[in-house]
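Morning!

This is the sequence you dropped in the shared folder:
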Amino acid sequence: MNSKLKSNYFNLFALSEISVIEVSGDDSASFFQRLLTSDISEVSPNQSQFSAILNPKGRVIANFLLTMRNNRFYIVVAKELVDSLVKRLRLYILRSKVNIDVEPSLGFFGCRQLPEINESELPNSALETQTIDEFTVVKMPGVDMRFGVLADSSHTEVVDRPPDSDYWQLQDINAGIPWLNQHTSEHLIAQAINLDLIGGVSWTKGCYPGQEIVARLHYRGGINRRMVGALSSAESKPVPGTDISCPDLPGNQTGTVVNSVVDTDYNQASMLISIPIKFIGQENLLLSDTHPLELKIEHLPYSIPELEKASSSGKQAE
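The structure's back. Tokens below.
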């Protein structure tokens, strides 16, 4: 069967802000294991994983989805970070047998309708992965049934509709899945974007750049910033990296927008924001010092220990 005909049953749509990096070679697994925050031994053709690479200060250079097929790894990452990430990874190759390539024809596409596929053939738990013909299908986290599909775009029929891309971003926001870009790269530590809460950090593997900082916060405490969901009446999409302030609190601490999308159904901006924990419970939060911001933290599908502790302390004080 022609590949384009096969792709029809996936109803694929373009994700314009996402690109793919291919990493292959005999040493690729060990190469990743000493560089990334996650345990690469848990990645397989049937299981994908969130991961990241940090700078020595523990700040996230790029976070991404890592998947695998045909003994090759594929990094699904924000398009804006592809060039800088490839450059950074190549610095560490040295004598390792590792090849890092960006294939323009290779893409990661969204999919939410599979009318001609038997459900038993599909992955059904978060990040479970299945290769069907030449399509690698990843079950993405979230309330809606949706899949990410790794495929050769030159042989794939893809619809490019902005509403589909906005839908995908909104689902990631609702699922608490961050995607750093050029505005937020190297500004936030792993815990500040909840990377440890979505399976993107291993506490049992060996060392990697920035590991000492991240591990110290985990074992000794001191995490003072977390990522939560937020809504704003701003009609335009807030740019990632935009400051969030709290005039009612002393000091100059600020939060930052991580991801955002305008929800046209409600005419509001939905966001993931990384903020100091002490901002929680404050009513007067401002986006860019002008737009009132309404916090919404209940939609994240995972618990945030520091916020639960802060909430519990607040109730006891009452």
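Headline: The first strand starts at residue 18 and ends at 24.

More detail when I'm at my desk.
O.
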